[in-house]
Design brief:
heterodimer; A: about 375 residues; alpha+beta; Butyryl-Coa Dehydrogenase, subunit A, domain 1; Butyryl-CoA Dehydrogenase, subunit A, domain 2; Butyryl-CoA Dehydrogenase, subunit A, domain 3; 3 domains; four-stranded mixed beta sheet; four-stranded antiparallel beta sheet; 11 helices; globular; B: alpha/beta; Rossmann fold; nine-stranded mixed beta sheet; two-stranded antiparallel ribbon; 8 helices
Chain lengths: ~375, ~260
């Protein structure tokens, strides 16, 4: 389908595809096996200027928007979702700064992020706060000139790799979620260390670690937005970032679909390629329908955001839920097309299948997002 | 250092053979619908060579492409790689030119651009592959030519060129300005970077007509008629598969080796 991307968007998509196929594809199995952070690939993406696609030109970005970010994520995920999420999580750690940061904060951080010299991460989740983001326990106690951070963030993508960390902590515990604030914490700040690296089912090359704060001082100028705005900023951030997650899921599904079609054309059973079987044809056709629908939803949502819409919680949630459910369904069926060999590590489908599951879980479990969509429905006047 | 690179837009060589169609009556290739043409791979090497020189010495790279108006896409691609500006030479009078005619028109465009230290071309085009334009262009401009370069260095107004020969390479020295044609051995062309893509997307590539560069009248007519295509056909490709057998895998390998030795 022709989505009428701009010339620049088409070039960025093509460039990312070239990098994905030439640089990521040869090492994806090894990265997965060794659970190794793809530092070299991040460097290649940085040199290509891709970390800045969605950032304004005045900060060294390419002046694009969420759609541009989605295009890069999609193309990377088509080859390796682990690499894609390492790239995308830097965007997640940057969007709050981009939207609510002061000019000084943006001047200080964005040029380095746009050039890829520094990657970013976002720390919200804690042992007691997953879907219930209001349940965070980390504190940022006001002190002269800044705040003292204490607490542990869990399952943080790019944890330990990111130089710039957007962290949510309570500045006023008595107010609950309304007492949360957002902070930029530099890697290397005193009292800021990293816990164990998690071993995961999928997206194994991405770094997932704990961020541990023990009396970590953060200067006041590193607070994003007003005190007490942390929870609201986070909800807004996730509205912005969910199409990117949808792009990750959709790109992954596209990769699985292509692999399944190629395999069905060459695998001979009963004297013919299995593509000749109507049962297989219909499976592949359904996969193609779902992937295209997911793409249309993700692009449309990204364009709505880039177009300046005020409220897009519902649309963001819809695009993420549909694309991630599609990723799970398509990788499951792609493995079915591969049959026995698809279950083996030698073939890429097994990895795609493992990589798909997380997209239904993180950045809002699909059940929670369905509740958000239902909430919007209840309020909606037709 | 001022460098001028001549690039050609060609049919994407990656298209499946079944999509490659010709019209035997007009003796022309029919471009397959929906496949955007690309820069000729050898010319992309020439652009890469220019960019490497610019990385080291600084300077300005100007690109010219003779072809259809869509050749602007190819020029933009080179801008994304690192060139500074480009022009498309397009005119009805330029259709059906052969190597002589093309070299004549390119020469006229270079005259209009003005001062230069080096002109770069691909060793040949990726479609017709005549490999003549570079040399003829140098002849027209009255400058030395070095073909099949795999490495170019510039210092003290001189060019040191590694040139591919059958069993290795030779190193030549040439004055500036000279014309050099780039070979594949130069290495892979760079990927464009995001910031350059943005600049390229915003660039308007001017189109120069015959009158703009003074390539017209009897001079152009004279440049036109050197060759004639007398026939055009698609080569038929036949693949035969022979299974080499043997009593053991080792024996099969030996049989295969013997077979290959006979073929060589």
């Amino acid at each position: 389908m022709d989505y009428f991307l701009t010339e620049q968007q088409n070039e960025i998509k093509n460039l990312t595809r070239t990098i994905a196929e030439e640089q990521v594809l040869p090492v994806r199995a090894e990265l997965d096996e060794k659970e190794e952070f793809p530092s070299e690939i991040m460097k290649i993406l940085a040199d290509a200027g891709l970390f800045g696609v969605y950032l304004p030109e005045e900060y060294g970005g390419l002046g694009g928007g969420i759609l541009d970010l989605c295009l890069v994520v999609e193309e990377l995920s088509r080859v390796c979702s682990g690499v894609a999420v390492s790239y995308a999580a830097s965007g997640l750690g940057t969007l709050t700064l981009l939207q609510y940061g002061t000019d000084e904060q943006k001047q200080k951080y964005l040029p380095d992020i746009a050039s890829g010299r520094k990657i970013a991460a976002f720390g919200l989740t804690e042992a007691t706060a997953g879907s219930d983001a209001g349940g965070i326990q980390s504190t940022a106690t006001p002190t002269s000139g800044g705040y003292i951070l204490n607490g542990t963030k869990q399952f943080i993508t790019n944890g330990g790799e990111a130089e710039v960390n957007t962290v949510i902590a309570l500045t006023d515990k008595s107010k609950g979620p309304r007492g949360a604030s957002a902070f930029l914490v530099d890697k290397g700040a005193e009292g800021f260390t990293f816990g164990r690296k998690e071993k995961k089912l999928g997206i194994r090359c991405s770094a997932t670690r704990e961020l541990v704060f023990e009396d970590c001082f953060v200067p006041e100028e590193n607070r994003l937005g007003r005190e007490g705005m942390g929870f609201i900023l986070t909800m807004k951030l996730l509205d912005f970032s969910r199409p990117g997650l949808g792009a990750q899921a959709m790109g992954l599904a596209q990769g699985a679909l292509e692999a399944a079609v190629d395999y069905a054309k060459q695998r001979v059973q009963f004297g013919h390629p299995i593509f000749a079987q109507q049962a297989v044809q219909h499976m592949l056709a359904d996969m193609a329908i779902d992937v295209e629908a997911a793409r249309a939803l993700v692009y449309a949502t990204a364009r709505m955001i880039d177009g300046g819409a005020k409220n897009f919680t519902r649309e963001s949630a819809i695009s993420k839920v549909f694309a991630s459910d599609t990723a799970m369904k398509v990788t499951t069926n792609a493995m079915q097309v591969f049959g026995g060999v698809g279950y083996m590590r030698e073939y890429p489908i097994e990895k795609m299948f493992r990589d798909a599951k997380i997209t239904q879980i993180y950045e809002g479990a699909n059940q929670v997002l369905r509740s958000e969509i239902a909430f919007a429905l209840r309020k909606k006047k037709w | 250092m001022n460098i001028i690179v001549c690039v050609k837009q060609v049919l994407d060589p990656e298209i499946p053979p079944a999509k490659f169609k010709i019209d035997p009556a007009t003796k022309k290739v029919i471009p397959p619908p929906g496949v955007p043409p690309v820069i000729s791979v050898f010319d992309e090497r020439a652009v890469e060579a220019a960019c490497r020189l610019k990385d080291k010495q600084g300077g300005k790279i100007t690109v010219i492409s003779l072809g259809a108006a869509q050749a602007a896409e190819v020029v933009k691609h080179t801008i994304a790689m690192g060139t500074d500006e480009g022009f498309v030479l397009q005119d009805e009078a330029f259709e059906d030119l052969d190597s002589f005619g093309i070299a004549y028109v390119l020469g006229k465009a270079i005259e209009k651009i003005g001062a230069y230290d080096l002109v770069l071309c691909g060793r040949q085009s990726a479609d017709w592959g005549n490999g003549q334009v570079g040399s003829i262009l140098a002849e027209i401009m009255g400058i030395p030519v070095v073909t099949l370069a795999c490495d170019i260095e510039a210092a003290d107004k001189k060019l040191k060129v590694k040139r591919i020969v059958k069993d290795g390479y030779e190193v030549l020295e040439a004055p500036m300005p000279s014309l050099i044609t780039a070979s594949s051995e130069l290495g892979l062309p760079r990927l464009p970077a995001g910031m350059r893509i943005m600049i390229a997307a915003r660039t308007q590539v001017p189109v120069w007509k015959a009158a703009d560069i003074g390539a017209q009248g009897p001079e152009l007519d004279k440049a036109k008629a050197h060759t004639e295509v007398t026939g055009l056909s698609v080569p038929s490709r036949k693949t035969e598969c022979e299974m080499i057998s043997g009593d053991s895998p080792g024996q099969a390998a030996e049989n295969l080796a013997a077979k290959l030795a006979k073929l060589l």
